[in-house]
Amino acid sequence: MYLDLFKLQDLPFRLSPDPQYLYLSRNHSRAKAYMESTIWFTDGFVVITGEIGSGKTTLIETFLRELEQDVVVAQVNQTQVSALEFLQTVLVQFGFQPFRMRKAELLATLNQFLIEQYAAGRKVLLIVDEAQNLSLRVLEEIRLLSGVETSREKVLRIILAGQPELNDKLDSRELVQLAQRIRLRFHLTALSQEDTRQYILHRLEVAGSQGRAIFADDTYPEIYRFTGGTPRLVNTLCDTAMMGAYAADHDTVSREDVLNAVEELQWAEYASRTHRELRSMLAGGGAAGSERALEHTGSRRSDVILAHVALRSEDKTLSEMPLRPGRVIIGRTSDNDIQIDSRFVSRHHCQIVTTPGSCVIEDLNSTNGMAVRGKRVRRHVLADGDQVVLGQHTLVYRDDRVAPVVPANDTGRLEAPQS
Questions:
Q1: CA 108/CA 269 separation, integer angstroms
Q2: Which end of the chain, N or C, is surrounded by fewer C-beta atoms within 10 Å?
Q3: Tell me: the pLDDT tens digits for 250-271?
Q4: Could you give phi then psi for residue 73, rounded to 5 degrees?
């Protein structure tokens, strides 16, 4: 990778949330302060919303890292669950094994746990990320949980974080009582142009730049023009531009490197994109291949399938995805191109970068890593037939650019392919 060229100790623009890289813009600082207020005030929910890639999860991870030891936390990320499964998930976070309990037992166990923690002088916090996926029934269950109280105050503190549609759901007629319990709401907006520049410089500094100018001054307006200050898009564009500069042996990322990266990603100017196109970009982190995007970038989209990757578990193929030029993100949450619902897989575990000449799989600072032929790797150039192990799942790579072997006939001569 480009670390040696740019004299960095770490990859500065990973997509996985990492608290040490959090840049606290004015908006992010305010959202964090609202989260912190839940520790001192128990009267109601705090709701934090923001578009995909706005930094909600990184903010949550930073907030959790700074909590005092007297705070007991349940963090729920898998939100496409039933009410019963949700209660089980919360109790698992608190150290119970509740899978054979009926609902009445689940509620009794949870209520007793909350009262015990209060009596011991500990605070209990429930954080639900991706809360926009919760059903109305589960949200109502959360409201009922928030009603557990002593003679003096509520016992359970609750933060709901999610995409903007969470607000629409909370404002529905069915959840009037829950909406009345919301104490604070805050929406994370994109970074300003100046904040985008400071965000890039901050991440480079954390990665070891030591004040060196790695991006030329005239790159920052272009980065903002194509990302709109959305942190995940900034990360994707900066990482792609640095890889391009590395390939060209440039020790400084130039404006041309950034524009070449935009062309590779097949992005249009941020302001010209529809909401649907932006969601597609943010969810996949790569090229949103609409015709409109191609008109603005002036590039031709390549629809040529260069390879395939199959997701397997226990000798069964769960899914298969064609690989075109661009980037595919693989991880546990629903915003990935390939989702692997497993506790052994990180939120954004790894990525496959496909170019006309190669496919490269790269670890995104995951917890459990990835292995090829029994050896843990951070980056690997994929060859036809490679199997990449991610916890209990395997990615099987097939390179369509490899010419098929033509079988020989009984005489040993090669048969001509049938038309």
A1: 54
A2: C
A3: 989 999 999 999 998 888 888 8
A4: -120, 135
